[in-house]
Amino acid sequence: LWISWRVVALFFRPCQMPSRNFETSSKIKILSVALRIGGKGSVVDNLNYGGFIVKCSINGYLADYAVNKKGEKVHLVNDIDLKRTHQIPFFSKCLDKAVIIASRNIHHRLLGLDIAIDKQNEIRIIEINNGHIGTDLPHLVGLPLFGKYTDEVIAYCKKNINKLNSEYVLRLKEIGG
């Protein structure tokens, strides 16, 4: 039995930060965690193949419901009663591993990490998503993508929209686009 979930981490770097609060910090912020559960009899936990997603607190406790691809809520998944209290084992150890991995991905400021615990209780990294990070996953379970940093990121983008567009256009020209 594997336990698998998506950790979304936002990596703030000096001189690229939305807020003065982070100008001297390169600390990684865990934005959201969601447990993924495969459909009955499935070997994958992907939502597109009948899987479910469950919101997870920063302490590793699961919400009392799961959501499928259509956004339908259920309280019973594969004979697991989510109305009972469940906590992901080795949760803080897994978050520590996510932070280490995110800190080594210096060219990306937003990552989706798929992490699992195997039968021997070892932490396994399934994949690191730097393009399609699953920005829809937090929203499906009622979490904003940037968590408590949402307003800050929006304000930064509004303030710097011309600079951001100019940098994008220049990069396109550099690669011949």
What does this structure look like?
- Helix content is 24%, strand content 27%.
- By secondary structure, it is α+β, with helices and mostly antiparallel strands.
- The strands form three sheets. The chain has a five-stranded antiparallel β-sheet with strand order 3-2-1-8-9.
- The longest helix has 14 residues, at 91-104.
Brief digest:
This protein has 177 residues and is an alpha+beta fold.
Structural features:
two-stranded antiparallel sheet, single chain, 177 residues
Unreliable runs: 11-25
Oligomer: single chain
| SS-derived structural category | alpha+beta
Rg to the nearest angstrom?
Answer: 18 Å
Helix segment tally: 4
Number of E-state strands = 9
- Approximate strand percentage: 25-35%
Order of helices and strands: EEEEEEEHEEHHH
* Alpha-carbon distance between the two ends: 46 Å
Which word captures the global form?
A: globular
